[in-house]
Each structure stands twice: as C-alpha cells, then as structure tokens.
C-alpha cells in the first residue's frame, strides 16, 4: 500500500499531466479570443450578432462577384440563375459566442436584414449543402481574406484554422437586395457550424456587393498595339470596351478604345474584320449566345455611326457565347478574361 503522502503526490502529478494540455489550450484561446482582424470593421449596413468575433475580412473598392438569384442547382452542380455584380465587395466572417446555435444566429441576422428593408430573393433553411458547395465553387469565399490570429479551439483542445470555419454542417443561406438611392445593394448571408461540430461554435459569412463604376483611363489603348496583335495573331482582344452587366449597351468609357479601332480601320481601308463577342460559361447557353451577338453588333453599330462612319461591308458581328474560352471558367479571374470582344481579320 502506498503511503498517503506518496499517493497524493502521484495523483497530483497525473492530474497535472492530463490537465496541462487542456489548460494550455484555454490559455491560448483566451489570448486571441475576441481580437478582430487588424484594420477590420462591421459593415455600416449590418452589425454583428452580439458578442461575435470578426475573424475573416476582405474589403475591396472594385471587383467582380456572382450572386445566385435563385436556389436552383443544375445537373452540373452549379447555380442556374446568377447575376454578375461589379463594384465594392465587402466580405466578413464572424464566430458567434460559444453555445449559440446556427439557427439562432441566422434568425437574428435575417430579422435585422428584413427590418432594414432588405427584399429576400430566396432563403434556404434546411438541407442546404448543395447550395453551399455550388457557392464555394463559384465565388471562392475564402480567397483574399485576412484572418485573425490564433485558432478555433474545441472544448477537448483540438484546434482549427479560421479559414476552415466555413462548413456545410447545419448551413443556412439567404440572398437579398435593397435599394439605396439609385443603387441596388446585394447581400448574401451564410451561417453554419464553425469547422466541425466539436468546436461548439457557429460562424456567419456576410458578403455585401455595392454597385460602383470601375475606375477607368488606367490602360492605354493605341493603334500600334492593335496592329502588332493583328499581325502576330490575326486577332486582338479589345480590352477597352465596357458594358453594363448582362446588357449590350456600350459604356461611355469605351470611347478611347473605339477611337483606336477606327484609326486602325481607316488606315487599312481594304481589310475586312469580324467583331466577335464572347461570354463566360455562367448561365444558359442560349442567353449567352444572344448576349455575345448583341454586344458584337453594338460595337459594329458604334463604328458605322458618326463620328467614325466605317463602311458597313467591312464589319460583320458574330456571337460566340462561351465556345472559345481563353482561360478556365472555374475561377472568376478566368471568367473575366473570357468575357471579351475581339477584332478578327476575315
């Protein structure tokens, strides 16, 4: 039989060995818990769930994103109805206080949005995993995010990175819009278990897209560059042409590019060209075909009209939808490159 003092010593040592890792985890968690991402803030449009921690943040003055406008998923596991949004993009990820379930957090955000006048496009409250994966594939929500220091800890001392907080577990999603002056701001909200059930935490991801014209006059477009590309490749991408999202109206900031195209055509009056419109692969093919044809025709019409007055026999508009991509459509950067108008020698 062990002496009482020795038994107490052994018991205390054993307790120390077992308890130390958990105690250390609690210390590490306390060190970082509640410290928001550096230089981050709530969006003025909607505040955080009480007691939440802002652990992921991105605020870009101008970028392109896509929001689903319905919860319909096609056989390709992609959203069938999508809108492309250009302008200021704010993305925030929060961790709710421990013990708060996703449904409670989601309901509070939903009520706040409705009270602010947000019109709901659609809401998914159960069995939303297919929507989650389609959204992840389309928008890459973690891309470009800044993350808080530390880790997400579980009550059993396991830990996960903040970038792993998004999960399909008990996920709930909504998309809505609100008129703010002449602009329509779009909101996507997604709440779920944070990382895994073992964390005992809920996360909420908010993406707010505010329409804003792209800064222009940042790229020089000149006739010499057009000539070189035509000589070497037989075609040239007209990067200085801009359209409203989903429309074929040429925007005013396209004038500099139109001026240079006209100079090229006027300097070589015997040559004939196709004006070819291209889209990415998002949405219905027939709609993309129509849009690409309309945009190509809009460019032709602009060049035939004053002040350019190019001979109509020299230009033919063609729409090519998404049949000739120059980059992968799996990422937004590639899709942006695929949305283009080209000048192709006949």
TrEMBL record:
Keywords: Cell outer membrane, Membrane, Signal. Residues 1-25 form the signal peptide. It comes from the Bacteria. One of its GO terms (cellular component) is cell outer membrane. It holds the Pfam family OmpA. The keyword Signal applies. The keyword Signal applies. Residues 230-346 form the OmpA-like domain. Its main location: membrane. It is found in: Cell outer membrane. This is OmpA family protein. It comes from Undibacterium fentianense.
